[in-house]
């Protein structure tokens, strides 16, 4: 334990010193303006400043290549997909075609037993079409839905503390007891939408994957992300290749 902490501290110090040295070197080279190669009228010149930047780029590329090889080898190692995963989708006045494509891609995910929670930021009649699309794609008999007059932080019109608490418990129970859930709630912004999903899930799953309602997911995306998290305990989060 102590050895790992010592190594971690050394890495932090080494990275910091390298960064500071690089900054000071670039600054000094820029001020001095020394040139290794130059042509008449300086149409082309290569100086100390350029040499430091080129060296930095080469070093970055080298370590990126080594890390890529390491990750490629680790991802080829088979692992047991026995961790529970929930996919949380944030939706707000989404284009119907985009939402359908998103949910169809969700149905093609190859991770076993993944839970899907879509929270809609808004609970007016103009937002109902998103819930309808959700039940259409995910299956009416396999999906749970709820139109919430409030959210976790704001009560609905004329609502008491007790009824607000009961509605929060109902949302949490709905998410925990169903594999596919869609909740419409009082508008509060994307953070409020994500909070609802995270709060309702609590510690019921090992990993949470998030995406917007206009995202088309690769079928293997959940599997590959979990592989990275399971391979290295020092990794706390994984980002997808968004194109």
Automatic annotation (TrEMBL):
Residue spans crossing the bilayer: 12-37, 43-66
Membrane topology: Multi-pass membrane protein
Gene Ontology biological process terms, A to Z: extracellular matrix assembly; hyaluronan biosynthetic process
Annotated compartments: Cell membrane; Endoplasmic reticulum membrane; Golgi apparatus membrane; Lysosome
Molecular function (Gene Ontology), one example: hyaluronan synthase activity
Span of the signal peptide: none
Function per UniProt: Catalyzes the addition of GlcNAc or GlcUA monosaccharides to the nascent hyaluronan polymer. Therefore, it is essential to hyaluronan synthesis a major component of most extracellular matrices that has a structural role in tissues architectures and regulates cell adhesion, migration and differentiation. This is one of three isoenzymes responsible for cellular hyaluronan synthesis and it is particularly responsible for the synthesis of high molecular mass hyaluronan.
Family the entry assigns: Belongs to the NodC/HAS family.
Cofactor(s), by name: Mg(2+)
Any one of the GO CC terms: Golgi membrane
Predominant location: membrane
Xref: InterPro entries: Nucleotide-diphossugar_trans
Protein name: Hyaluronan synthase 2
Entry EC no(s): 2.4.1.212
Coiled coil (UniProt feature): none
Pathway(s) it belongs to: Glycan biosynthesis; hyaluronan biosynthesis
Catalytic reaction equation(s): N-acetyl-beta-D-glucosaminyl-(1->4)-[hyaluronan](n) + UDP-alpha-D-glucuronate = [hyaluronan](n+1) + UDP + H(+); [hyaluronan](n) + UDP-N-acetyl-alpha-D-glucosamine = N-acetyl-beta-D-glucosaminyl-(1->4)-[hyaluronan](n) + UDP + H(+)
Originating species: Bambusicola thoracicus (Chinese bamboo-partridge)
Keywords: Cell membrane, Endoplasmic reticulum, Glycosyltransferase, Golgi apparatus, Lysosome, Membrane, Transferase, Transmembrane, Transmembrane helix
């Amino acid at each position: 334990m102590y050895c790992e902490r010592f190594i971690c501290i050394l890495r932090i110090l080494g990275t910091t010193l390298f960064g500071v040295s690089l900054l000071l070197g670039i600054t000094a080279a820029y001020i001095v303006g020394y040139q290794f190669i130059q042509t008449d009228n300086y149409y082309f010149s290569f100086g100390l400043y350029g040499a430091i930047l080129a060296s930095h780029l080469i070093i970055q590329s080298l370590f990126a290549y080594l890390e890529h090889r390491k990750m490629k080898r680790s991802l080829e190692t088979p692992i047991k997909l026995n961790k529970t995963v929930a996919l949380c989708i944030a939706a707000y006045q989404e284009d119907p075609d985009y939402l359908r494509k998103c949910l169809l891609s969700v149905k093609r995910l190859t991770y076993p037993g993944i839970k899907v929670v879509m929270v809609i930021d808004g609970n007016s009649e103009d937002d109902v079409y998103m819930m309808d699309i959700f039940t259409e794609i995910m299956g009416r008999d396999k999906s749970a839905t709820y139109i919430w007059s409030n959210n976790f932080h704001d009560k609905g019109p004329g609502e008491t503390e007790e009824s607000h608490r009961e509605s929060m418990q109902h949302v949490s129970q709905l998410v925990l007891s169903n594999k596919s859930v869609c909740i419409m709630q009082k508008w509060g912004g994307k953070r409020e939408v994500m909070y609802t999903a995270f709060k309702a899930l609590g510690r019921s799953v090992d990993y949470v994957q998030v995406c917007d309602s206009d995202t088309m997911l690769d079928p293997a995306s959940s599997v590959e992300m979990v592989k990275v998290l399971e391979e290295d305990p020092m990794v706390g989060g994984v980002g997808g290749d968004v194109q």
